[in-house]
Amino acid sequence: MATSGEFVLIEKIRELLGPPSSRVAIGVGDDAAVVSLSRNKCLATVDMMVEGVHFDLSYTLPEELGHKAIAINFSDVAAMAGQPRYALVSLGLPSSVDDSFVEAFYTGMRRLAVRFGTDIVGGNLTRAPSLVIDVTLLGEPAGSLCLRGGAKPGDLLAVTGPLGASAAGLACLRRWGRAAMNEYQELVVSHLMPFPRVTEAQVLNSTGLVTAMIDISDGLSSELHHLAKASGVGIRIDEASIPVTPATRKAGSVLGDDPMAWALGGGEDYELLFAFKPSRSISLPVPITVIGEVMGPSMGVVFRREDGREEPLPARGWDHFASRGE
Amino acid sequence: MATSGEFVLIEKIRELLGPPSSRVAIGVGDDAAVVSLSRNKCLATVDMMVEGVHFDLSYTLPEELGHKAIAINFSDVAAMAGQPRYALVSLGLPSSVDDSFVEAFYTGMRRLAVRFGTDIVGGNLTRAPSLVIDVTLLGEPAGSLCLRGGAKPGDLLAVTGPLGASAAGLACLRRWGRAAMNEYQELVVSHLMPFPRVTEAQVLNSTGLVTAMIDISDGLSSELHHLAKASGVGIRIDEASIPVTPATRKAGSVLGDDPMAWALGGGEDYELLFAFKPSRSISLPVPITVIGEVMGPSMGVVFRREDGREEPLPARGWDHFASRGE
Q1: Structural contact between residues B102 and B9, judged by C-beta atoms closer than 8 angstroms
Q2: Residue B132 needs a FRET pair 20 to 30 A away by CA distance; which of A91, B195, B285, B313 works?
């Protein structure tokens, strides 16, 4: 049940969001939102973030949290090469969170939403013992949809950006708090404000070469298994080709962590992992890194070390590689 | 990040849900769901329920919780005379909640979803310090949409069922726990398993007589104010005509509570409140109770007591009337 304080806050949020696009018949504040899609197909995804599980307010600004809460949903729609359109935002607010926090949260969220042509059209405010954020994102196909199940043996596998930076940023934040920004800003920003590959996904998909795509939220090794299972294929990736930035390597060295474990299992990279048909004139229109190839299903998911040894890569790469302790 | 235990649970849920309807191109388990709408208009609503704020597991069965979590969203779509179609379910699960709880929750939710032709197409499982449920419901117009803003002076105001039963049921549960079922089953069921007026809303709207509609979630007095504000009208309701069941009166008498306070401000009735043009042959095709009439805007929202006295009805009727302490 909304309190009168919540009604005031809803009004503030509505003001902050400004007038919605013409596609929105009914936006924030009614029983339900009423929106238009360009065709009759709708993409829908939802992601819940819980304080203490997914974020720590001691080193996260509300704007950053708003950015990330919608970014992770953009990434899901990107994974299908879809176009995001509408967001609904449920917030469970503890008493420690005040109106200005919520406004800053919405400011961060709105900034990214505007960038991707997305209206925030509704939601829900309620009390809760700790901060809970649940964002639903609706989208529509931008051309054909790109699913997980189309990879074929012989395809190459690639990612759209470096891996492990988010996990490295998290480790830095846990060690140094907000002060990690001084030396490891690139990593911290990767973790707190991931930039979803909505545009890259559409551009890649428009080449007609991409056969399967997924976003990296749980970590590369998990996503490789998802993609292999959905496509009914095996996969071999090369340690030497996995893109890890110098900053991530430096943080690993300083913190005594294995950057490759971050890259394989750290998760929250929100880069795209995709398979594509190798073509003679192979120039994909966005920067990518080829990390391996698609094999027959009997191969499973295999990791080729720099020294040439091959070993099965478990879905939970993080634990496995972290436990080597080297 | 999903744990492997969560993957097992997702598989169980997928099995329990069974194959989706042919309108669902991609359902539970992918990056995003892909669904079809019959036209290019989409209704979207979301409602968050938090343990300790909206429900108490000491007297709520998981099936009931599943029912209610989706019922309150059905009620929002019903308020517009829409047709529910697709649900996404986010769950934040504390360690005290096991897989069998989640399966029973989904069983209760699915039962109501099937009844209203709705597919559960996706969602999110995560850990959380206490149980959090956030259900997003997508729907489409069933004919024209019925909004809050069309009421005109001279219209009559009606509701689709008794009011205050849910609040009475909650009071009984708080006093007697689950044992309240013995003597007050009707009230307890009203509270734990409200039945959304999806069909009634469509039938009422199809008469062409209904000018404004809203569902009663926050309590009659609040909804009267919402409707009056959106329509730019005043409202007068009659105490004598407000439908309160004998069971609610009995619970009020036994517990020393005012049944009229429950009816005006208790909330969670999930009945429809609507304005309609009085017509010569006034036989609406579903049972309704006329509770008042729409007036000019200068009237405000007025409550006519049984003795004929008129007084302004504040939006938060509960507090006001409860504080009379009689």
Answers
A1: yes
A2: B195
Looking at residue B51, what DSSP letter applies?
B
Q: Within chain A, which residue ranges are assigned CATH 3.30.1330.10?
A: 4-141
Tell me how far apart the alpha carbons of residues B165 and B170 are, in angstroms, rounded to a whole number: 9
CA distance linking residue A85 with residue B163, whole number of Å:
38
- Candidates A41, A88, A267; nearest CB to B1: A267
Cβ contact, residue pair B50, A124, below 8 Å: no
The partner residue sitting opposite B31, judged by closest CB among A39, A45, A90, is A45
Q: What is the DSSP string of A2-71?
A: --HHHHHHHHHHHHHH-SPPTTEEE-TTSSSEEEE-SSSEEEEEEEEEEBTTTB-TTS--HHHHHHHHHH
- Classify domain B4-141 at the CATH topology level: 60s Ribosomal Protein L30; Chain: A; (3.30.1330)
- Of the candidates B157, B161, B163, which has an alpha carbon nearest to the alpha carbon of residue B261? B163
Confidence of residue B317 (pLDDT cuts 50, 70, 90): low
**Partner B contacted by A43 (CB < 8 A):** yes
- According to DSSP, the residues that pair with A292 across neighbouring strands are A157, A237
Check if A126 contacts B (Cβ < 8 Å): yes
pTM for this structure?
0.93
The contacts of residue A114 (CB under 8 Å, 6+ apart) are none
Is the CB of A34 less than 8 angstroms away from the CB of B48? Answer: no
pLDDT at B304 over 50: yes
Give residue-wise pLDDT tens across range A61-113: 999 999 999 999 999 999 999 999 999 999 999 999 999 999 999 999 999 99
Tokens 């079809």, located at residue? B36
As a whole number of angstroms, the distance between CA B62 and CA A229 comes to 32
ipTM over 0.85: yes
Task: List all residues of chain A from 133 to 162 with a beta carbon under 8 Å from chain B.
Answer: 134, 136-139, 141, 145, 147-148
The answer to whether A88 touches B46, Cβ cutoff 8 Å, is yes
Q: A45 and A136 in contact (C-beta within 8 Å)?
A: yes
Pick the CATH number of A156-322 from 3.90.650.10, 3.20.20.150, 1.10.287.110, 3.90.1180.10: 3.90.650.10
Query: Is some CB atom of chain B closer than 8 A to the CB atom of A108?
Result: no
Q: Mapping DSSP to helix (H, G, I), strand (E, B) and coil, where does residue B232 land?
A: coil
Judged by DSSP in three states, B95 sits in coil
Interface contact B234, partner A, CB < 8 A:
no
Q: Give ranges for CATH 3.90.650.10 in chain B.
A: 156-322
Provide the token pair at A301: 């998911």
Which pLDDT band holds residue A284 (cuts at 50, 70, 90)?
confident
